Structure formats: structure tokens, C-alpha cells
Amino acid sequence: MAIPPSWIVKTGRSIWTQIWQLMMSQLAPPNDRGEYQRPQSEFRNRLDGIYAPEPNRYRLYVGWSCPWAHRTLVVRALKGLESSIEIVLVQGDANAGGWTLSKPEHGCNTLAQLYRFGKLGYTGRSTVPMLWDTQTYSIVNNESAEIIEILNSDFNDFASHPELDLAPIALQDSIEQWNEVVYETVNNGVYRCGFAQTQAAYDNAHIELFATLDRVNDLLASQDYLCGDLLTLADIRLFTTLIRFDLVYNHLFKCNRRRIRDYPQLQAYLSNIYQLPGVAATCNFSTILQDYYGNLFPLNPGGIIPQLPDMSYLRRVDS
Fold first, then answer.
1. 58, 61, 191, 263: which is the annotated catalytic residue?
2. Is 66 a catalytic residue?
């Protein structure tokens, strides 16, 4: 079979490149070096003033596939807040250009509409997770790093496991140091690889990503978690990226030097956290695959959804 004539190949490549660059500029705005720049979250309230910690007052809007939203689901499960904080699952819809609600709320069918309902005239990004106050009909916070801190500390009076502190004072400096490294090179690092728009941007992000994974794998040979022998919010933030790594980032985002299952210590670390009570139930692998491969059209124009890879290493033999 002959390949198409060269003029067809050149024309098709030129047209597709222009369309791809246009779509990527909206999906993942780059800087002048082609590096992905994640926008800052805009709602950063804490539970004080008009927002008082109360059971059954707040809702968490989350999507199964989103690693940032997944953080809040894991902390909610570990703290035992299921009966105090309602979860509303939204669905990613590329045709709708964002997250859609499973049923209308306040006349809204999409999360973007609900954002505008909560703040008149809002024109920013409508992201998950989003912590919503059902009393004032307003958005409390949409920064995942802050929401998990709120869940860890502000709802202990209503938690089944108030004794669990994922951010002990004695480990604050270590937690913050790891958060900074892991966010830049791993949490956002996989997106810096997948959304890079120049070869240099991709190469730099790829090198930094695997340098951190190598470092963490070596560290875990002598301790259970990032900050020692206690699970902290730093581990939760790392976990939700690692659990998606072999599923999507390794292939779709070109993070392909190694898989997590190729790292002995990281593999055991991931399995240990996955085995904690309630955590496995927050991991919806089929939806993760569907949303990433089905909705990120610029990265997967054919829309083919791959089969689930072997994730059996997450289940310990002795479990």
C-alpha cells in the first residue's frame, strides 16, 4: 500500500498543526517557550466568617477522572466525612467544553453555569474540585490544596476519624517542601509533558519528572512515606497523580521513560495507600481512561479508548 502523495501529507500536516495549536492555546495556554502554564485557582476562602464548619452544609463537586478532585475524595474517605459532606459527581464532556451536571441545579446544567450562579458575571475557569456552600449559594474554594487542608482540620467534630491528622505541626516544613517539589515536577509535571508545545519544553519537563520519581523511589527504600513513617497530605497529593500514571500519563502524556510498576518502592508505596480503608473506592479506572482519552481531543484525535492495563500490583498478595 502506498502512502498518500507528498502534497496531501504536507497540506494535512500544515492544517492539523494550525488547528492543534489553536486548540492547545485554549486547553493549555503556554508561555513564549511553549511551556504549559497552569492558571491559578480564583476562589480561596477558608471556613471562617460567613463560612462556619457545619455538617451537611457543604458540597464537593468532583469528577472521577480529575487528580486534583481525587485528592479531596481520598481525604474525605480517610477522615470519615462521608455522612457530613455531600459529593456531587460531574461528567467531563468535550462537546460541552467542560463539566456537566448529572441533573439540573438552580437552573444550571453545567458546572460553568453553576459557577456563574454562585458569582454573577464570573468568566474564569470552572474547575473541580469545588467546595459549595448550600446556605449562601456561593463557592467557598476551588483550590484542591486548600480544600484538603480544610477537610483535614475543620470538620473533626463531625468526622469518624478525627484522630487522624494528615498535617501534623511537627511535619509542616517537610510537608511544604515536598508539596513544592511534587507539584512542580510531578502533579503539574505530567501536564507539562503532555501539554508541551515545543520539544525543549517537553524535554525539560520529562527530565524533571523522572528525576523526582527516581528520588522518591530511593527515599522510600528507608521509610514508608514522604515525611517519614506517617501518611500526610503530601502523600495524598502524590498518590492521585501516581495512580493515573500507568493508566494515562505514561502513554497519552508521553511520560514514557518508566511506569510506576517499574519502580519497586513506588509500586509498594502506591499499593499501600490504595489499600487504606476507603481509598480504593475513590479510584474509578474506567472513567479515568474514558475521560482522558475521550475528552482530550488534541492529544488523541482518533478517540480510541485503550483497554485497562494490568493494575493487579495495587492489590497486595496478603490482602
1. 191
2. yes
Q: Report pLDDT digits (tens) over 72-130.
A: 999 999 999 999 999 999 999 988 889 999 999 999 999 999 999 999 999 999 999 99
- The residue type of 220 is L
CATH class of 58-158: alpha beta
Judge whether 191 counts as a catalytic residue.
Answer: yes
Distance of alpha carbon 169 from alpha carbon 225, whole angstroms? 16
From 1.20.1050.10, 3.40.50.300, 3.30.70.20, 3.40.1350.10, which CATH number describes the 169-276 domain? Answer: 1.20.1050.10
Among residues 36, 51, 58, 66, which one is catalytic?
Answer: 66
Sequence ranges of the domains in the chain: 58-158, 169-276
Q: Judge if pTM exceeds 0.90.
A: yes
